Amino acid sequence: MQKVGEYWVPDIDMRGFRNRRKTLANYQDGGHGKQIGHLTQALAVMIDRLGDDALAGAVAIDAGANVGAYSRLMAAHFGAVHAFELAPDTFECLARNVTDWGLEGRITPHQTAISDRPGTVGLGSGGWFRRSISREIKGQGTIPAIALDDLGLSNVRLLKLDIEGHEEKALHGASRILSDSKPYVMMELKERHVQKGKADLGAHNHLLSLGYTVVADLGDPIIDRLYAPPS
Q: The CATH number of the domain where 60 resides is what?
């Protein structure tokens, strides 16, 4: 792992000129490119709708936490954050960042994948020029997977999912959380994929079937869509 700004990042993110350039641009300013602003906007929408104190004692879930940029921002607003990262090298960076930031009491890192049931999954490398944020679950493997409902969490106010196409399974594994806690849900959706008819809208359609509504589209062309629970 290597240190960039206030973040430890896996070696793969500094491999070659293109990866290194993108990583330096993301983390030298203390954020994660433009997308960290999407979470800031989402939190502003939630606070406007729920009130200033609604998040303070609540739980946030960061599924696809990578090295912890989103988890760190969540920890400034929520009482507890559960951060999930399945790649071993990236998880080591996440855990070290949480310790270095003094947030061990606020952020709990989990080295697991999120799915609809317990099991194991494999991890695709994505190729030489794919950074750690683009890794995907690929078939069977040795990495443990869990369903979020099995953690027994309550008072979950935000569920952020950026798990490269595994979002629908994650939602099915969080059916109790969705029905009992009624969290807001934030998911990435690439607009160019929607326009070309290549987007997997399974997770989107599942939320709509539960009565969720889209209350904000954050960013362009990579959109983080914020869904509000039914009243």
A: 3.40.50.150
Going by C-alpha positions, the residue among 68, 60, 85 that lies closest to residue 185 is 60
What's the pLDDT tens digit per position in 13-52? 777 767 777 767 777 665 555 557 889 999 999 999 998 7
The Cα 89–Cα 9 span in angstroms is 9
* 125 Cα distance to chain centroid: 19
- Bridge partners (DSSP) of residue 205 are none
What is the per-residue DSSP string for 159-203?
EEE-STT-HHHHHHTTHHHHHHT--EEEEEEEHHHHHTT----HH
Write out the two tokens for 119: 């099991």
- Return the HEC string of 89-145: HHHHHHHHHHHHCCCCCCEEEECCEECCCCEEECEECCCCCCCHHHCEECCCCCEEE
Which of 110, 115, 106 is CA-nearest to residue 58? Answer: 106
Provide the number of structural domains found in the chain.
Answer: 1
Domain that holds residue 152: 2-228
pTM of the model: 0.88
CA atoms within 13 A on the CB side of 184: 24
Question: Is the distance from CB of 160 to CB of 225 less than 8 angstroms?
Answer: no
